[in-house]
Specification:
Elements (H helix, E strand, L loop, with lengths): L1 H13 L9 E8 L4 E13 L2 E8 L5 E3 L1 E4 L7 E3 L2 E3 L31 E3 L5 E7 L11 E5 L18 E9 L1
This protein binds copper (II) ion and zinc ion.
Copper (II) ion binds next to strand 5 and strand 10.
């Protein structure tokens, strides 16, 4: 693990310029009760002076708003809770390196993994650039992006974690 981390750091140093923009990315797939299903687009990341910019291109969503977050683990596996399958449960919780345990959205001081919600058009497609002011590319490797069935009100009330509910798309983040 130490060697892997070292290599990632070296790659980031070599590619710290605009010439290497968009090299950190995730291929997104639908989630099923046993793992992942069809490919559903991609997310590409780059650092800007406003923060981490994500180019989000997705398909197959229900029209309307969807919560999207950086989740802790590099896994899109299904897990089991109380005897029920949890699609994408392997991704773990929202990236929260300071252990705030609060969901406050991209401008808040809670989970660093809280991203601006995305909106799918009438055909279920998303082609959007979103900016997460508190995140950097270097925080992404070894984690995953998750898109939820519902929107995100950037709060833990009335429902926890923005109220997005079930996990519908997931992608483990890599760099190449
Ligand atoms: Cu999430
Ligand atoms: Zn959160």
């Amino acid at each position: 693990m130490k060697i892997l981390l070292g290599m990632s750091a070296a790659a980031l140093l070599l590619c710290g310029t605009a010439a290497c923009a968009d090299q950190v990315h995730a291929t997104m797939n639908t989630l099923t009760t046993t793992g992942i299903g069809a490919e559903a687009g991609s997310i590409k990341a780059k650092d800007t002076k406003e923060g981490l910019e994500l180019h989000v291109q997705l398909k197959g969503l229900t029209p309307g708003e969807h919560g999207i977050h950086l989740h802790q683990n590099p896994s899109c596996d299904a897990t089991v809770k109380d005897g029920q399958p949890v699609p994408g449960g392997g991704a773990g919780g929202h990236f929260d390196p300071l252990n705030t345990t609060h969901h406050e959205g991209p401008a808040g001081n809670g989970h660093q993994g809280d991203l601006p919600f995305i909106t799918a058009d009438a055909n279920g497609n998303v082609n959007a650039k979103i900016v997460a002011p508190h995140l950097k590319e270097a925080s992404l490797l070894g984690r995953s992006f998750v898109v939820h069935a519902g929107g995100d009100n950037y709060s833990d009330t009335p429902k926890p974690l923005g109220g997005g509910g079930a996990r519908v798309l997931c992608g483990v983040i890599s760099s190449k």
